[in-house]
Amino acid sequence: MSAPDHARRLAYTTLLVPDYDEAIAHYREALGFEVVEDTRLTPSKRWVVIRQPQGGNALLLAQPGNEEQRALIGRQAGGRVWLFLHTADLDADLAHLARQTGIRLTETPRQEAYGRVVVFEDRYGNRWDLIEPEAGLAP
Questions:
Q1: Where are the domains of the chain?
Q2: How far, in Å, CA of 115 to CA of 134, rounded?
Q3: Considering the domain 12-133, what is its CATH architecture?
Q4: pLDDT in tens, 57-116
Q5: Exposure string for 83-121, b = 16+ CB within 10 A, e = fewer
Q6: Which of 4, 86, 132, 137 is deepest in the core (most CB within 10 A)?
Q7: pTM for the complete prediction?
Q8: Cα–Cα distance measured from residue 116 to residue 109, given in angstroms and rounded to the nearest whole number
């Protein structure tokens, strides 16, 4: 069976967070995300979508609905790098991240075949690659 031939795209990636407003503030300040949508669905549930101002894939912030989900905050990828953020200026972004509360750089920048990269953890323990792609390799 082959996939349909019409256009599709991955729209959102769910990111478990303990508190909507705290997470919005963290990702806004630390990574420059903006709120695309914030709609109350129930007294305890909101539809909160954040994204980089330049566009691209968006994150759907979700508060856990039970203890099993709560235990996965910051560990949705089992300890692996899970989110990948491209930049045009790794050094400037590193200087900004180093000043942010809740961001932990886990290594020094390194050169790979695809560009310069550094791994950091956000406030919740999610591991990110911050990548300055080699010329011609950016999506």
A1: 12-133
A2: 4
A3: Roll (3.10)
A4: 999 999 999 999 999 999 999 999 999 999 999 999 999 999 999 999 999 999 999 999
A5: beebbeebeebbeebeebeebeeeeeeeeeeebbbbbbb
A6: 132
A7: 0.91
A8: 7
